[in-house]
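User: I've been going back and forth on whether these two constructs are worth ordering. Before I decide, could you fold them both?

Assistant: Sure. I'll take them in the order you sent them. The first construct and its structure tokens:
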Amino acid sequence: MRTLERLGNRMIGKRGESGMSLLEYAMGAAVLVGIVYAAVSAFGGSLQSYFQGLSGFVNNLPT
């Protein structure tokens, strides 16, 4: 019976369940986007002032 199941799976292109599915990748990406959004929302003002200071420093470097 197991051989027949493997033959059927091979015919329809189904493989083992060892990897992640597209849905799992999409859910992981959505979680990551949520974390990045929360971090930027929480630290947005301080990040802006940090990069403005960095920009002023780089612009004032002697060439």
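The second construct, handled the same way:
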Amino acid sequence: MLRVRNPGHSHRWSVESLLSDTLPLVSDAGDLDPTDAVGGLPSERSGTRLGIAALLYMVGVTLIITLLPFQFSWPDQWRVMTTGNAIDVAANVLLFVPLGVLFRIATGLSRRHAVMGALAAGVLVSMVIEALQLFEAERYSSVLDVAANGLGALIGAIVCDRAFRRQRPDVTVIGRLFLELPLMGLLYLTFPLIWLTALVSVAAPQWAWLSIPLAAFGGSLLGGVLHHVRSAVPPQRAGAFAAAAIVIGMLPALSRAPLAIAIGASVAFLTTRLVATRQERSPMWNRRFEVPVLRASAPFYAMFLVLMVALSLADGVAPWSLGAGFPGTAQSWDKVEILRFLVRVAAFTLLGYMIAEYRGREEQRLANAVPRVLRWTVAAATAAEIALGYRAGRGASVAQWGFVISAALYGGWLYRLQLEHVIAVSRETRDPRPIPRDL
């Protein structure tokens, strides 16, 4: 039911209106109909699928961090360590905390079984990694790493269980976080990208300038949502929230690049406020506002991608070269280089999510979205790899090209799973009372 609260802003639609418009459309889509769940609530099934997808993605990120450049050979001797310094132990614990959290979310096990399962899964994944590192000439396997990784997974599962065991997604939480809008999933995915950029910026401060196009992109998304959806959140408060997200996300690099981060925070505030308060120019009957918001935000993200590639060439250029595998040796893939590659992977994951969402309401099945996601991401990845072919000591890489395209396809899949889960939760939490919008 359409609810018009302000004659001057009759284009804004209530959450109930958006859901009533979305649900009939999705219920006609074979792979998005949550009523096909067998056993348990539909939201539990869809949440499990989304959790498993996120868990697999995190496992992939962990493999990148621990095994790049994936160059294996039979060792002359087996190298196994039983000791390590405190910093490495802490890092290995923290590395597996997200895996424990996602394992707890993704499994339908009882509390005790899920926590112990997270421990077992953490140890198993770590043992596989350490076994593979035996076949990398410049790496060492460590028994202590297995114990630290298992502990990290256990901590993650316990923290997740205590935080959420007494809570279920309800209409208040959905309303306050705008979780009924799949478009907001794109905004929440931006924060890990900001965080990875900050970690790179600690060693390469010039990368902090990437926070500016990311701030404009995030501000445009948030402002666009506030502009089209009836909300009691003042634009100034939303802008302050966006600015704070930039500062918090870039906090590791704050002392290294304060000017770039300050500009980024200012851009986030101004973009959110300006977009949220702009004059409406679309037809009053247009309630499909995801596409206009994505169109307005896309140029900022394109600027981020171009600047990311340009900064990768800042270390020096050389004659163009192309290799099949990952360039360099394990020693040349230091922490900064690994983080740079993770920024690219995260950036293309978000790009795939964005492309899938652009026509997500029209394409009822994931298979229909794959060709379009593939076309756009192949073009973007090819352009980036051609430019990176001039990077001194690295060059272009077929393996890296294929990796980021796979990440984009994964991002498109995450969008479909997230949309399915939002719909299932919204169906179960519909309430005749008005949804709060007071953050």
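Notes on the second construct follow. DSSP finds 14 helices and four strands in the chain. The first strand starts at residue 80 and ends at 81.
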